[in-house]
Amino acid sequence: MPKSSSKSSSKVMDNAKYKLADNANEVLSAVRSLRNDMIRKAEEAERHESNLELAASASAAASAAGSDDASYNDDEDALSSAVGAAATSTVVAAASGNKKRRVAEVKSIKSVDSSEIVEVAEMSTTEVLEGIESVAVKIMHQVLAKQGFTLEIPSRAASNQIYVPELDRIVLGKKRGSRSFLNVSSLWTVLAGLSCVSLSRGQKADVISSFSLKNIISKLSLLYVFLPCITQPTLTKQVKESRKSAVTTRVLQLLHSVLMKRIHITKRDLFYTDVKLFVDQAESDGVLDDVATMVGCTRSNLHVVASDKGLVVGRISFVEDGDFIDCTKMGVGGKAIPPYIDKIEDVRSDAEFVLLVEKEAAYMRMAEDRFYHKYPCIIITAKGQPDVATRMFLSRITSELKIPVLGLVDSDPYGLKILSVYMSGSKNMSYDSASLTTPDIKWLGLRPSDLNKYDLPDQCRLDMTENDIKTGKELMQEEFIQKNPKWMKELQIMVKTKKKAEIQALSSFGFQYVTEVYLPRKIAQGDWI
What we know:
Elements: E1 4-5, H1 24-65, H2 69-96, E2 117-118, H3 125-144, E3 149-154, E4 161-164, E5 169-173, E6 176-181, H4 184-193, H5 213-220, H6 237-261, E7 265-266, H7 267-272, H8 275-278, H9 281-295, E8 304-305, E9 311-314, E10 316-320, E11 323-326, E12 335-336, E13 344-349, E14 353-357, H10 360-368, H11 371-374, E15 377-381, H12 388-401, E16 405-408, H13 413-424, H14 433-436, E17 442-445, H15 450-453, E18 462-463, H16 466-475, H17 479-482, H18 485-497, E19 499-500, H19 513-524
Parallel strand pairs: 1-13, 7-8, 14-15, 14-16, 16-17
Antiparallel strand pairs: 2-5, 3-6, 4-5, 9-12, 9-15, 10-11, 10-13, 18-19
Helix pairs in contact: 1-2, 1-19, 3-5, 3-6, 6-9, 16-18
């Protein structure tokens, strides 16, 4: 487990020329209380889970003991030893890290049965390779037996998304869909014609033993050329399904090659390996998520990442692939959040909180004003809709450092949707919500109630469009909104007044108003929900 620390060292964040704001202790008092409360609740939850696990162990031991008195006494001693060992291991686990639990690991969850959902796990490169090869072997068995070529893939449709209130996140249900490849007889003929294998009818049962895994994987890359029509738009549902299957097998082959070389590529790289087949990058991107659910790994385990998007600046340092990074010394713009989160280790910080900012313009204002030195914090932005790397980075550092997150977004439905993605996850990647979500982010601003509270000029209050209003009403139907009455009240104000505002509207009071007045005042008052 990578090391982390909330303490600074002589090597980390040595910023003698900067000093805290004169009112720093007063401003940070509410945040410190929030952090202490957050830690207390986390410890209580951990103790509760430990008690449930111990109770389950005790129940199992008691059941095995039987009614024999002597056996009962022996089992009671054994149970005491087991309970003691379990308690010790819990302490060790708590001390070694704060890895987020998946639904199956949380005994207190009653709203959903863990057997009814699909959640992926972190895997090594070797494990992912074995998973892809297992899929390849199943495909070849079907092809060689002329049973049909069908892939079973967990459905990521909206109807298969489940909200878990205990964890405040979305997970993927167990419904599955299938993709079948057209014309299996022709497929067999082509395989034979390619000298993939030469056999009689009676030899088909033994043919798989003549394939090496390398050959099986390489032959998958040829499936997409068997039917020329699959690379062209068509109205035939069966051919569309065959084309989707061809795209999937092609991606499987490419991913296997990348993993064998132990390298990383971008999603754009993957698309350009076969533009004619993929046609649109959205297709290859979507199949990546399908492959992750098929194999049971996180998408980052596939070694395909998105280009850098998120930024971080402030009081945090870490080692990235052997290089020491101090985010207080990365220039005004800060550090690009790396797509390879697994290569980050030794995270250190003396920050009191994380400030999560929707817009890059607002982020740059805070970075240039060195807000993070006046009020020790970490400032993060994904420049709008959050990408996977930024979500994963935020989730990891807050879990390890145990500091609260305050969100600063536009006062419109989309700002709140962005917060919801950070908090509860996206429906598209609900299968990996455990590593992509950050629970209990506090909505600091800009809230609908702030427009009157801070006397925002009328010219800075924009009229909501019909689509804005529709989106706002849809958000009010979401479970994660309904469970928070204060969020619901803010949305009701927004929809009723039909007004929205951007963070930059605060600049009407002065270019540095947001860092010198608005944020210190909001934080000092604990004015978040």
